[in-house]
From TrEMBL:
A GO molecular-function annotation: pore-forming activity
Keyword list, A-Z: Membrane, Metal-binding, Transmembrane, Transmembrane helix, Zinc
Name of the protein this chain belongs to: Monocyte to macrophage differentiation factor
Binding site for Zn(2+): 80, 205, 209
Highest taxon in the source lineage: Eukaryota
NCBIfam families: hlyIII
Family classification: Belongs to the ADIPOR family.
InterPro entries, A to Z: AdipoR/HlyIII-related, Hy-lIII
Length: 239
């Protein structure tokens, strides 16, 4: 009984159907800090890829990927801060909650962009470069029309968008970095367990944030090593 009471200090009861979970103050703080600390590293990461770029196309790709990474952590942090201090900002909280959901779609598209832009693709696979953004736009429309109504459907959309472009990426002739890409995707999937465990596991959403950060770091490492750093080393060898 004492153990249950101690857990209740850090975790509220599970939310009902079509209702949003209300974190405790401890969980609110953890939700904010776990992504706030990653905003500056995301800026630095984007700047590094931009500096390693050899041409305009690589610089644009670095900017798109970097902005997706920054937006994910920045919007998430702002939403959780507003949600924590929401007494006079309910309409803004609702707006940023939708933005928090929308930015996930664009982050997924941005994460695939370096692989789709900087690796050689077949004529059919090349269409995935714009199709991932079409899927992100479709996800945005879904959020603005059915926000918080069908949570499992929304989760299915995220997973579909996360896995569908991988079919193209894994078919590339150059497979360097695909193990890291797959491992990062696996970490994201593990994190989904905590994403759906609010009210069951204390600090579940903050733990989900940690899994997102870890998976994003794995993907960033693969992009830096195999798409940007490797091309720079090849240029040095040619000289």
């Amino acid at each position: 009984m004492k153990r249950v009471n101690s857990l209740q200090r850090f975790m509220n009861t599970r939310a009902g159907a079509n209702c949003r979970y209300q974190p405790t103050c401890y969980e609110h703080a953890a939700n904010c800090y776990t992504h706030a600390f990653l905003i500056v590293p995301a800026f630095v990461g984007m700047a590094l890829l931009h500096r390693l770029s050899d041409d305009r196309w690589e610089r644009i790709t670095a900017w798109v990927y970097g902005m997706g990474l920054i937006a994910l952590f920045l919007v998430s942090t702002v939403f959780h801060i507003i949600s924590w201090k929401k007494s006079h900002m309910r309409s803004m909280e609702h707006c940023f909650h939708m933005c928090d959901r929308v930015v996930i779609y664009f982050f997924i598209a941005a994460s695939y962009t370096p692989w789709l832009n900087l690796r050689e693709l077949g004529p059919l696979a090349a269409h995935m470069r714009w199709f991932v953004w079409l899927m992100a736009a479709a996800g945005t429309i879904y959020v603005f029309n059915y926000h918080e109504k069908y949570k499992l459907v929304e989760l299915a959309f995220y997973l579909t968008m996360g896995f569908f472009p991988a079919l193209v990426v894994t078919s590339m002739s150059n497979t360097d970095g695909l193990y890291e890409l797959a491992f990062g995707g696996f970490v994201y999937c593990l994190g989904v367990v905590f994403f759906k465990s609010d009210g069951v596991i204390p600090f579940a959403h903050a733990i989900w944030h940690v899994f997102v950060a870890l998976a994003a770091a794995i993907h960033y490492y693969a992009i830096w090593k195999y798409l940007y750093r490797s091309s720079t080393l090849e240029d040095i060898r040619d000289v």
